[in-house]
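User: Structure with protoporphyrin IX containing FE, tokens only please.
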Amino acid sequence: MSRAFVNYWLGWLLFLAGLGLAVSGFVRWFVLPGQGRGGGGRAEEAVFVFARHTWTDIHQWLAVIFSVLVVVHIILHWSWVVAMSRRFFGQR
Ligand code: HEM
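Assistant:
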């Protein structure tokens, strides 16, 4: 597996996880507002494709996946981060 192959697919996964976070976050925010789990004491939970708490679960797990991918992305580009920091802060 080449480095370019890993970076390419990691980039796609980061994009898709970010898109999923935005979609699930905005659905939860604008389409199904209100309390989180349990529907705020209401007998039935609001539904848009999935129940509100399922959107929250999707959002939370995508946040975990996204955070792991960001850490892997930074590790894979660490030498670039170090080189650019040295250039900007003038160390050799
Ligand atoms: C456009 C982007 C985003 C929008 C509109 C958004 C929106 C929201 C909303 C409305 C909630 C409350 C959900 C609830 O209580 O049911 C929430 C919670 C949360 N969001 Fe996002 N979010 C976005 C991006 C992100 C990102 C990038 C991350 C992390 C990588 C993230 C992580 C979380 C976490 C950990 C919670 C807490 C869930 C809980 O209270 O159980 N969100 N977000």
